[in-house]
């Protein structure tokens, strides 16, 4: 009869989702703890935190809220779509699925740049070796 903590948590998350769909309430980021407003996103599907860019695994298809995983989705890379639009690749720490999400209007530019520059800032070879293998 007593509900498990997981059940209570999921019910709370479901309640939060309903609020999100109305678009007038913010939510608290499960990763960095900052309060996220849904108003500034410039999109109906605010699917990641604009500060740390983390997301939650809530969807199977974008916006369907059908996933039961609810794992932390870590931003692993930026990719540029045809037409120059940036998107973030999110990888779920629980189940390993990778989703692509458009960036939102209020995503922190510094957080985006850090993510985009991450591989360049930790090269797997010394910078002096660049191009040497071409001779
Ligand atoms: Zn966050
Ligand atoms: Zn997952």
Structure description:
The protein is α+β, with helices and mostly antiparallel strands. It has one domain. The protein contains two helices and six strands, in the order αββββββα. It has a four-stranded antiparallel β-sheet with strand order 3-4-5-6, covered by helices on one side. The longest helix is centred in the first third of the chain and has 18 residues. About 4% of the residues have low confidence. One zinc ion binds next to loops.
Structural class: alpha+beta
Helix residue percentage: 10-25%
| Number of continuous helical runs | 2
Question: What shape does the CA trace take?
Answer: elongated
Segments where pLDDT lies below 50 for 5+ residues?
19-24
Heterogens:
zinc ion
Q: What's the order of the H and E elements?
A: HEEEEEEH
The Cα radius of gyration reads 18 Å
Strand composition percent: 15-25%
Report the major sheet: 4 strands, antiparallel
Work out the count of structural domains.
Answer: 1
Q: Strands of the biggest beta sheet: in what spatial order?
A: 3-4-5-6
Q: How far apart, in Å, are the first and last alpha carbons?
A: 72 Å
Number of strands: 6
Concise overview:
With 135 residues, this protein is of the alpha+beta class. The protein is built from two helices and six strands.
Q: Which features characterize this protein?
A:
135 residues, 2 helices, 6 strands, binds zinc ion, alpha+beta, 23% helix
Helix and strand layout, with pairings?
Blueprint: H1 5-22, E1 27-28, E2 35-36, E3 55-56, E4 72-80, E5 86-92, E6 98-102, H2 109-121
Antiparallel strand pairs: 1-2, 3-4, 4-5, 5-6
The structure holds zinc ion (2 copies).
One zinc ion (ZN) is lined by residues 29, 31-32, 34, 49, 51-52, 54.
């Amino acid at each position: 009869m007593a509900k498990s903590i997981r059940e209570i948590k999921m019910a709370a998350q479901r309640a939060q989702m309903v609020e999100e769909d109305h678009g007038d309430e913010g939510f608290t980021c499960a990763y960095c703890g900052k309060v996220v407003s849904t108003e500034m996103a410039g999109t109906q599907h605010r699917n990641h935190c604009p500060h740390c860019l983390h997301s939650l695994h809530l969807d199977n298809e974008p916006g369907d809220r059908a996933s039961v995983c609810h794992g932390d989705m870590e931003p692993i890379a930026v990719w540029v779509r045809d037409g120059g639009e940036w998107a973030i690749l999110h990888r779920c720490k629980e189940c390993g699925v990778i989703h692509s999400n458009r960036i939102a209007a209020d995503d922190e530019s510094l957080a985006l740049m850090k993510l985009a520059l991450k591989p360049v800032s930790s090269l797997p070879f010394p910078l002096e070796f660049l191009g040497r293998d071409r001779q």
